[in-house]
Design brief:
Helix content: 25-40%
Oligomer: single chain
Distance between the termini: 43 Å
Structural class: alpha/beta
CATH class of the domain at 291-423: Alpha Beta
Shape: globular
Length: about 425
């Protein structure tokens, strides 16, 4: 058992994450006057349980703490009651509780805590707060200043989302994480109608069951005009969702869009790129959408992707034809990150097209893992005069021999390359 703690000089941050603490060590910590100058306290993965939370809550030296991280511990309902009702933690602005044992009762305790009115960021992800907990958060009169709320994988169903959406009275929420909760279009119907979500700029709905009807409801809502980032990975979406997003009159300012692992296919992408709604997109992840070379060609040929900086096309069967289209694109000149890895079946000629592309001269990261470029493709990349800004290159699983690996490792043209992965 340790007998003291080291606090960095002239620092308002103190982190003990990943260090298992006994109750005696937690008590020792809470008796240290050096805590009085701390604003950022990280006790994640320390084994903190309800008894430890009681010691923490009673510590009078924590009155200046604004950010408290207690992720991946053993906190239960009693522990979160003590933390959220502590008069010593009323300066909290950000509270991260991901991966604990907090249930519906603990969420209710947090929702009614009278001293949590300054809280702007709350992370309850990977706790089983369920629909009762979500409703309590929504009905809270204390959490009305929340700007960021994370309810990822919390066991909230459609009824819970509906209750939360209909009762939430805060008007400052800009980021909300709702992934991994098995929502369907029924839950999204109420969420899309709630007027107090008009300030949202970030919306994560990954790993649910929204299907095309859910996206149609979302796209048709007038409440998402400020949305800049939308995550829709694994929701069973098809070309109909692409059409809905393309026709939306409110979701028109997106900068980041993730639709990984759906079923847009080439037809969906062709519909999606017809609209000016994509003109501000800087990050696009359409990996695992069965685009094929035609879908990749559609993206490469669009005149509206002039602001695109990151393009993720993993596992789409792009073939050399798709890689050549990317290389020959006239509009992707701002691209800095390009992923064409995993089952895109790109061979040497595709690598050649990328290496000879003047459009890709700003590329800093290129991932071609699990393709078929071989030593010949490696040679094209190594001798490219257009990829001089490339800092990261991944060619793992491309049938390179020692010769191909050596060619890349000793490349003179890839003068900015700092990280090369080939095995």
């Amino acid at each position: 058992m340790r007998t003291s703690f080291y606090f960095p000089k002239d620092s308002s941050r103190f982190e003990l994450k990943d260090q298992k603490l006994t109750h005696g060590e937690i008590k020792l910590l809470t008796e240290d006057t050096s805590l009085s100058g701390i604003k950022h306290l990280d006790l994640s993965r320390t084994g903190l349980d309800d008894q430890g939370a009681a010691l923490l809550a009673s510590c009078s030296y924590l009155t200046n703490v604004e950010t408290l991280l207690l992720e991946n511990n053993n906190l239960g309902d009693e522990g979160i009651f003590l933390i959220s009702h502590s008069p010593n933690l009323q300066s909290l602005v950000s509270l991260k509780l991901s991966g604990n044992e907090i249930g519906p009762v603990g969420s209710k305790a947090l929702a009614i805590a009278p001293l949590m009115t300054n809280l702007k960021a709350l992370d309850l992800s990977h706790n089983r707060i369920e629909s009762f907990g979500a409703k309590a958060i929504g009905q809270s009169e204390k959490l009305v200043n929340l700007e960021s709320l994370n309810l990822t994988d919390t066991g909230v169903n459609d009824d819970g989302l509906r209750s939360f959406a209909e009762s939430f009275s805060g008007k400052k929420l800009s980021s909300i994480y709702l992934g991994g909760n098995d929502f369907t279009h029924e839950g999204i119907k109420a969420f899309s109608k709630a007027p107090n979500f008009a300030s949202i700029t970030f919306l994560n709905l990954e790993d649910n069951r929204l299907d095309d009807e859910g996206i149609e409801l979302l796209s048709g809502s007038p409440n998402f005009r400020n949305l800049e980032e939308l995550r829709l990975r694994r929701n069973g979406l098809t070309a109909d969702s692409a059409i809905a997003l393309a026709n939306s009159t409110s979701i028109v300012n997106l900068k980041k869009l993730t639709i990984e692992n759906n079923d847009f296919r080439a037809d969906g992408i062709r519909e999606f790129i017809k609209t000016k709604n994509i003109k501000n997109i800087e990050y696009l992840d359409v990996s695992e959408n069965q685009l094929g070379p035609e879908g990749v060609k559609a993206i490469a040929s669009s005149s509206l992707f002039g602001n695109l900086k990151q393009l993720i096309l993993s596992n789409n069967g792009a073939l050399d034809e798709g890689a050549e289209a990317i290389g020959n694109s006239k509009t992707l000149n701002k691209l800095e990150v390009l992923h064409l890895d995993c089952n895109n079946w790109i061979e040497a000629s595709g690598a050649k097209a990328l290496s000879q592309s003047k459009t890709l001269s700003n590329l800093k990261e290129l991932t071609l893992a699990l393709n078929l470029i071989g030593d010949e493709g490696a040679d094209y990349l190594a001798n490219s005069k257009n990829l001089s800004n490339l800092a990261y290159l991944n060619v793992v699983g491309n049938r390179l021999t020692g010769l191909g690996e050596a060619t890349l490792s000793s490349s003179v043209e890839l003068k900015s390359l700092k990280n090369l992965e080939y095995f």
